[in-house]
Amino acid sequence: MITDQPVLIDAILPRVDTKTKAIARDIALVLSFAIITAVCAKLKVEIGAVPITMQTFAVLLAGALLGAKRGALSQVTYLLLGLAGVPWFARGGGIVYILSPTLGYIIGFVFAAFFVGWLCEKGFDRQVRTAILAMLIGNILLYIPGVLWLAKFVGLGKVLSIGFYPFIVGDLLKIFLAGSILPIGWKFIKMSKE
Predict the structure, then answer these.
(1) Where are the alpha helices (DSSP H) in the chain?
(2) What is each CA distance from 105 to 26, 33, 94, 131, in whole angstroms?
(3) CATH of 9-193, one of 3.40.50.720, 3.40.50.2300, 1.10.1760.20, 3.20.20.70
């Protein structure tokens, strides 16, 4: 059985000495990655029902850097605050976003961040090959609710051509970039301790 290992953010930021400070640190990290996801949502190219954004990059890194629970919580925070009216989704925000064809992808962010974080807690972020594998699996998990939800709006016959195929090349680039960053971070940490 593979035991849990620290994720990169816990190796970079110093540990805190009290439970209250630890909770405050975790809240700050979760909120920070919700905001990073929001900023990446605004880096977009409109191509139809689903825009191309940098959100998936932020989601995958949230899971990898924060771990399963905090990574997923960052995306739950992003989702709930967006539905509450913070206009930080790619196309705004508010409760009416429940009727958006892209809501399924945002729900998928939670699953993707959790699973990538879980794999990184098992050490998948230490080597490029396994880090990329973790990101690829997370990206697939993100697409499942995204494509299923989108199908309600565009039909099963068009869902892959509208909500999947246009994103493959960009997602592979984001996966490779995110998967390459993590092992480099661990190498720098190891060198700094020597």
Answers:
(1) 8-12, 19-42, 55-66, 68-83, 103-121, 128-154, 159-163, 168-193
(2) 25, 17, 16, 22
(3) 1.10.1760.20
Domain boundaries, the chain: 9-193
Segment 125-177, tens digit of pLDDT? 999 999 999 999 999 999 999 999 999 999 999 999 999 999 999 999 999 99
CA 45 centroid distance within chain: 19
Torsion from C-alpha of 185, 187, 189, 190, nearest 10 degrees: 160
Three-state secondary structure call for residue 89: strand
Tokens 């490029």 sit on residue: 128
In this predicted model, what pLDDT tens digit does every residue of 78-105 receive, in sequence order? 999 999 999 999 888 999 999 999 999 9
CA 163 to chain CA centroid, nearest Å: 18
Element (H, E) at 45: strand 44-45
